[in-house]
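Let's practice the habit of predicting before peeking. Look at the sequence and jot down your guess about where helices and strands might fall. Then scroll down.
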Amino acid sequence: MSNRAARRNRSGSAADRLGLGSTSVEAPVAPVCDIEAWLATYQPRGKSWRSTPEAPLGFEGWDGVADFVRATVGRFLEREGQVSLFTARTLTRAVTELALFAAEQGTTVSSTTVLNHVTVQQFDQALAKALRARVKAAPARVRAKVETAGTSTIASQVGTARRVGQALNPRGGWPAASERRHRYLSLPYTSAEVRLLEDQISRNQGIARRNGEAFLVLGLGAGLDGRWVAQVRREHVEDLGVDGLMVHVPGRAVPVLREFEERLRALVDDTPGGGLLFGGTAVHRGAASEAVARIRLDPAGPELELGRLRSTWLVAHLALGTRVPELMAAAGLESMTALSDMAEFVAPLDQDPDRCATAVRAMLRGVEAVAR
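Done guessing? Here is the structure:
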């Protein structure tokens, strides 16, 4: 399944300061680990995303859509499996806004009438209209910032709504690709999806199998995407023995996750001096894309997307507790945006709510190491 159309949901006081509307999604009491209990008590607060200075809008119609929202988010979370509270908040707020918008248009609230392409597209247009009003009302010195931040925020909000809709109502008339041109988020793969990719790639032969193995090892093990993965040569891999392996790309050196070290050593041993790890000799800009197209995968399984491999690597490090400055340096990041995007995909510390809450307290108190 392709996730190119999925985008993250921006939230926080910065958006409020820029006049983007309240992004608060806190329930009166929000357990950090028990998502089911949190969802049962969820109440939207603050201003709607469609609120403007001239027409403030809250959540007056919440009682009429509350059951639909909770049922919809519950179904989605059951389908997706274990998620963080951040993800649950993001999804619930998006479904709430979409359902309220549909109800205000006189639509009977149901999965088929709300979770479809037409309704989400109209929701997108309503958010854009509200943004134009906020930009117009903003002081001249900050209008550009309001518009830039608002456009990105709308992409995130609509992307989240579309993600839920496509999952729960696949016959909702969704286009093959998004019609909007915004910054897209490459979703990390789930463990099950990685296993499927590993199995499918191993069924390939010759150069296609070599391409796929290199993409998996360098993507999942070192966070290299299409910009770098097809340029790594044997000489760019430094073997430090018991201290592991380092992959050198311009401007940084990336330690390889331990579970991928032996597979990378095998690739290096099988590569002649000066040769490219992913095989072949092509070094032009489209070399990685051509290699991906060469790999045969089951159409019913996940697509091989190099950006998603990198996202999976980022999530793995966040789950391990890797410090942010060091992770940013290894990933070649200049801002926190990518890590903020990935934070919602880090699983809770424990599936049991009580044990999770205990582990969270211990971690935030700094009294003991937390097993992940």
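How did you do? The beta strands are 237-239, 245-249, 252-255.
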